[in-house]
Amino acid sequence: MLQNPRRWNLIVLTRLFNQEDVKGIMSIPLGSIDEEDSLIWHFSGDGKCTVKAGYKVAYRYLLEGSNPRLAPQAPWKKIWKLRIPLKIRNFIWRVCWQAIGVNSALFQMKLNISPECQRCGETEDAQHLLLYCPYARAVWIHSLLALRSDQINSNHISEWITTWFDSRSYLEGDFADWAALQSIICWQEMITVSKEYIEA
Ligand SMILES: [Zn+2]
Fold first, then answer.
1. Are 129 and 138 in contact (CB under 8 A)?
2. 186 C-alpha vs ligand 1 centroid, how far in Å?
3. How far is CA 185 from the centre of its chain?
4. How many angstroms separate the alpha carbon of residue 1 from the centre of ligand 1?
5. 4 within a domain of the structure (yes/no)
6. Model pLDDT, residue 59
7. How many domains does the chain have?
C-alpha cells in the first residue's frame, strides 16, 4: 500500500499474485479511514480460509485454467502433494507456467518498470531470478543442497522442477523432502526480492 495518496502498490501486487488476483485487488476501493487490516477469504461464507478448502479451489483452478496444448510437462500431482504451504505449491505451479511477476514479464505488461534485474542488470526472467542471478547462485550453493545452480541447463524452468522428482542422485523415498526444500528456497528468493522492491 502506498500513502499520500493511499493507493495499491501495483508493482508489488504483480510480483506476488497472478494477473486475475491483481485485477481483483486493484478493484477494491480504499477507504479514507485508517482502520486495521483483516484477512478474509471470499470462497467461504464466513470469510475463513482452511487448507482443505484452499486445496479444492486451487485444484479446480488448475484444471480449469490449464490448456493441455500449452501445458508444460511437469509432475503436477507430485507438486500438489508436497507437504508445504498451499501458497508455495501455488507459487511453484506459477513458476512452471512462467506466471510470476518477474521484471521482464512486468515490462511486457507495459508496467513502468525496467526488464532488468535490480541486483545485477541482466534480464530478469524466472530462470534468472531463481537460478542464475549471482544472488540466487549464492543462496543455492550455501543451502543444505549445496547446489551449483549455474550448471543447471533447462530450456524451460518446468524441466528443472521435473528433475526434482526423477533424479537418481537422491536417496529413494526422499524425493518429496528435497522437492519441498527446493520449493521453499525458490519461494524465499521471490519473497526476498519482493521485499527489496517494497523497501526500495
Ligand atoms: Zn540478477
1. no
2. 14
3. 11
4. 26
5. no
6. 53
7. 1
Cell numbers for 88, please give them: 508455495
CA of residue 85 to ligand 1 center, whole Å: 27
CA of 132 to the centre of ligand 1 (A): 7
* pLDDT given at position 88: 94
In a domain, 33, yes or no: no
Residue with C-alpha cell 500449452?
A: 70
Residue 3 lies in a domain: no
Segments in the chain below pLDDT 50: 62-63, 66-70, 169, 171
Q: Is residue 35 part of a domain?
A: no
Question: How far is the C-alpha of 80 from the C-alpha of 73, rounded, in Å?
Answer: 14
Q: How far is the CA of 122 from the centre of ligand 1 (A)?
A: 6
DSSP 130: I
Instruction: Quote the domain boundaries for residue 53.
Output: 10-25+40-199
Alpha carbon of 17 to ligand 1 centroid (Å): 21
Q: Is pTM, for the whole model, over 0.90? A: no
CA of 103 from ligand 1 middle (Å) equals 11
pLDDT at 121: 93
- At residue 177, the pLDDT reads 80
